[in-house]
Write a structure and sequence with these properties.
It contains three helices and no strands. The chain is mainly alpha-helical. Helix 2 crosses helix 3.
Length: 98
């Protein structure tokens, strides 16, 4: 009678083992890769549309050519830039919990 439940138990144990191994080996790498991507996007936005925050780097003609591609991210980028004290500050230098 326990036979139908046995494959479900092995499937759940295999899923739990896979998630544990991912947390043990790959989770930190994926978090670091996402953080690096976020920082590179922030640098790109500062270089291309820095005049929105008062940092004129590129001439506006090049920014206008890139504008259709970055319009969806402008609101979140401005919110992110307003949250930081300086645009080069990173969260890794904060003392979390101290």
């Amino acid at each position: 009678m326990d036979t139908p439940r046995l494959p479900n138990w092995f499937g759940g144990a295999w899923t739990a083992l896979r998630q544990f191994m991912y947390g043990l080996t790959g989770y930190e790498f994926s978090r670091h890769a996402l953080a690096m991507r976020h920082e590179m996007e922030a640098v790109f936005m500062v270089v291309t549309l820095g005049d929105l925050t008062g940092v004129p780097i590129l001439p506006p003609i090049y920014s206008l050519r890139l504008l259709p591609y970055v319009v969806p991210e402008i609101a979140t980028w401005k919110r992110h830039m307003a949250r930081r004290k300086e645009f080069w500050e990173k969260d890794e230098y904060d003392l979390h919990g101290l």
